[in-house]
Specification:
single chain, about 280 residues, alpha/beta, TIM Barrel, 5-stranded parallel beta sheet, 11 helices, 10 strands, globular
Length: about 280
């Protein structure tokens, strides 16, 4: 079943990439030779994804508790690890998470990280009933985050990496500078028709599939991510974008694995860790 869902999500991302990024509609970002930009991004879903009508499951106490591990235990570990290596990055936060765990989200910002939009209750946009529903999710999510942290978010990551036919239009409508949901490249690019920067993702660069679906050990995932990074580095690519979740990567053994990965990456010349918005500004400059 999970393999089917993964396949469905992947095919959907490709379908919408073709829909919005037709031939001649994208411009690749200029590469800075000898430099690779590393984004260690986090989706702070908490238990939002088991609370909404599009979660695909009832309101289960065990599922909620798993999500609650993120803000309660995983997030503080992540923030401390990032501080240890002076890394600033981007956290994509559902509006419901910000409303339910406001002090956690404020702490993310206090430590110098960026906040991006990630739905309200982690709604799968491809499953919504109408364009109006999606507009309301965007509006409510943005308003909640802006009210809490005092700054309007300019980045978006689609829950489940799923777009509807209206999502790109809504990104333009709400003046987003970038999205990080599509899978059609290994480099950032600008969508000409919208001016929005795309920061591509990949299932192999995501912790959820590795740990929650395939149940791999930290050592196996570490080896896989090191291979991914080394291959990009050898190919002189300029970009590596990991997607992680505090409720998943925040387990003690996995935080230890992430630290080993950071140390390994830092050994390479030309590496820098940065927030999504910092890279986007460079792409647009």
């Amino acid at each position: 079943m999970w393999l089917f869902l993964l396949s469905k999500s992947y095919k959907s991302c490709l379908r919408f990439a073709r829909l919005f990024l037709t031939s001649g509609d994208s411009t690749m970002a200029k590469k800075d030779k000898g430099r690779i930009n590393v984004l260690l991004t986090f989706d702070v879903d908490a238990d939002s994804s088991v609370r909404g009508p599009y979660s695909g499951r009832p309101d289960e106490p065990v599922a909620r508790s798993k999500g609650q591990f993120g803000p309660k235990v995983g997030l503080p570990r992540i923030l401390n690890l990032l501080d240890k290596y002076a890394i600033k990055t981007t956290f994509f936060v559902p509006g419901w998470t910000a409303e339910t765990y406001p002090e956690n989200v404020k702490e993310i910002v206090r430590r110098g990280h960026e906040i991006g939009v990630h739905g309200y209750k982690h709604e799968n946009l491809a499953q919504l009933n109408s364009q109006k529903d999606e507009v309301e999710i965007f509006r409510r999510s943005i308003d909640q985050l802006e009210a809490l942290v005092g700054q309007r978010p300019v980045g978006f990551r689609a829950p489940d990496w799923e777009f509807s036919p209206h999502t790109m239009e809504n990104l333009m409508k709400f003046n987003f500078k970038y999205d990080s949901s599509l899978m059609d490249s290994e480099e950032p690019y600008v969508v000409k028709s919208s001016g929005i920067v795309e920061l591509p993702v990949a299932w192999s660069w995501d912790d959820w599939g590795q740990f929650e679906i395939h149940r791999r050990s930290p050592s196996v995932v570490l080896n896989g991510w090191i291979q991914e990074f080394n291959a990009l580095y050898a190919a002189r690519m300029s970009y590596f974008n990991l997607t992680m979740h505090p409720q998943t990567i925040g387990r003690a053994s996995r935080i230890g694995m992430l630290e080993i990965l950071i140390k390994n990456i830092r050994k390479r010349r030309g590496v820098r860790f940065l927030r999504c918005i910092d890279l986007v500004r460079e792409v647009l400059s």
